[in-house]
Specification:
The chain is of the alpha/beta class and 496 residues long. It is 36% helix and 15% strand. It has 14 helices and 16 strands. The strands form 4 sheets. Strands 3-2-1-7-16 form a 5-stranded parallel β-sheet, with helices on one face. A 5-stranded parallel β-sheet has the order 8-15-9-10-11. The chain has a 3-stranded antiparallel β-sheet with strand order 4-5-6. Helix 1 crosses helix 14 and helix 7 crosses helix 10. The longest helix has 21 residues. It is globular.
């Protein structure tokens, strides 16, 4: 089987490792990645050690069926140089892990007779053949391929205020060791957004010795929650099988049914539903500094509500999301997305402590409300806020890429696939994929038996899935894809 992966980030690493682990036959693999930073993606490039991954090592393994794979790798790396193993690895170190796993996977495939190539080209279109797909990069054609997997990652943060190209504007902060260097230590800085990327930016500025005031400009002004001490907990009730059984033949769940099942799970764990509801109610009325201080004080709390919620959502979220009514999904994406991201994607306690110290000293403030930014006469920028005007020397864009949309760099490819009826755009953004195998256009009325195998993974599948970016989610999706490939010619039970 001739396989192509479009994109060379963490998803491509998971796929390469899964192919090397599960697939018994000989084939060929081409990985197309325009950036020279292959395997690292946007978030795991060579960067400062203060910029950390936001999940503990046990949640960051890319090997399906081996959840401690990264944990063991990290321990061996640090113990080899006599250093203590961190609870949260630097992003650059995790990038090293991704590179090593990808290279090892390629070696394993080649040892079995596979042809493997990495191609530093951007794929801009596709050409359909009989059960195959050729890929186009400008005037070059690659293939044909029996299977193509779209793993293009997220797009760039949106330039909402038209500041691109202006002196002092940082369109994308990664890698921070390059993009944030040279900022005057005393200069006032505005950071657009208040999510995990904004947290990374504050930590990086602090490590550079910046002592000017930093203002996080955010409509909601909601910081990520603080990760509590992990617990060993496996959901018993809020699980995919129970959700599908409740959905029945019509494949739809009422939101009241979801809440009832979640309450049952929390009751089973000895946790309180009221803790979760209270946390959601506090989001918009509690000062960011007060919430941060409260969360830090609760890192070792015996109350398990949030941790059970986080575990249950990550385990069952991919199955739950497609079962919800359209109006509920759009309500969540429109008004509840930031709240859920804050609770389910928390920051490390060490990051929270640095932020809180900066807030107490007055060096860090969070400005809630819709800002208006424009270049100021004589240099710098003016930020017009609901409670006044702020003059800053630098603006760093830490907003999310347009949620679940097709990245601009992949627009030509997606247009080509849609025009040839090989893919369908999802009403909520991105592409439609099968929930069980991530196959594009899976089960659609116009799908033909001779269609090539076309899959998609990551943020571009956000219409179908809610969580599209966490490593555990990527590992699960990659395993589904490889199992589906095994089903093409052989019974998957023979190998997995």
């Amino acid at each position: 089987m001739r396989i192509a992966i479009i994109g060379g980030g963490a998803s491509a690493v998971c796929l390469t490792d899964a192919l090397a682990t599960f697939v018994p036959w000989i084939g060929s693999l081409h990985v197309f990645e325009n950036s020279p930073q292959i395997w690292r993606g946007r978030a795991y490039q060579q960067d400062m050690d203060t910029v950390l991954v936001n999940s503990p090592a046990v949640d960051m393994s890319v090997r399906s069926g081996d959840p401690t794979h990264f944990q063991r790798w990290l321990r061996a790396r640090y113990m080899a140089v006599g250093r203590s193993v961190p609870d949260f690895a630097p992003r650059a170190v995790y990038g090293d892990y991704l590179v090593e796993v990808a290279q090892t996977g390629i070696e394993r495939l080649r040892a079995r007779g596979w042809e493997v190539q990495t191609v530093q080209r951007r794929i801009t279109g596709a050409r359909r053949g009989e059960r195959t797909l050729s890929l186009i990069s400008d005037n070059l054609v690659y293939g044909p391929f029996d299977c193509v997997i779209i793993a293009v990652g997220v797009g760039q943060p949106a330039d909402r205020f038209g500041l691109e190209g202006l002196p002092g504007y940082v369109a994308d902060p990664y890698p921070m060791v390059e993009r944030l260097v040279g900022i005057d230590p005393g200069a006032p800085v505005a950071v657009l957004g208040s999510g995990l990327t904004a947290v990374d930016t504050v930590l990086a500025l602090d490590a550079f010795g910046h002592h000017g005031q930093v203002a996080l400009l955010s409509r909601a002004g909601v910081l990520p929650s603080v990760r509590q001490r992990p617990i060993d907990y496996e959901p018993r009730h809020f699980v995919p099988a129970a959700l599908h059984a409740m959905a029945g033949t019509n494949g739809r769940l009422e939101f009241s049914e979801v809440l009832a099942l979640l309450r049952r799970e929390l009751d089973h764990a000895g946790a309180e539903m009221d803790d979760v509801l209270d946390e959601l109610a506090r989001l918009e009325r509690e000062l960011p500094s007060a919430r941060l201080q409260r969360h830090l004080a609760a890192v070792d709390s015996p109350r398990l509500g949030l941790r059970v919620l986080q575990t249950a959502v990550h385990v069952s979220g991919p199955d739950l999301w497609p079962l919800l009514p359209d109006e509920v999904r759009r309500e969540v994406l429109g008004t509840r997305y930031r709240a859920l991201m804050s609770l389910c994607c928390p920051m490390p306690p060490s990051s929270a402590r640095t932020l809180l110290a900066s807030m107490r000293s007055g060096r860090l403030v969070v400005e809630r409300g819709e800002p208006v930014l424009e270049a100021a006469p004589g240099g710098g920028f003016t930020a017009v806020l609901p409670h006044g005007t702020r003059r800053v020397a630098r603006v760093i864009n830490c907003t999310s890429a347009p949620r679940h949309k097709v990245p601009l760099a992949a627009a030509g490819l997606v247009d080509s696939l849609v025009d040839q009826q090989l893919a369908i755009r999802h009403a909520d953004g991105g592409l439609c994929v099968g929930t069980d195998n991530s196959l594009c256009n899976s089960g659609a009325a116009n799908r033909q038996p001779d269609d090539p195998r076309l899959y998609a993974i990551g943020d571009i599948t956000g219409g179908t899935f809610f969580f599209t970016f966490g490593i555990p989610s990527l590992v699960d999706r990659c395993r589904d894809i490889v199992l589906d490939l095994l089903m093409v010619g052989e019974s998957k039970e023979s190998y997995v």
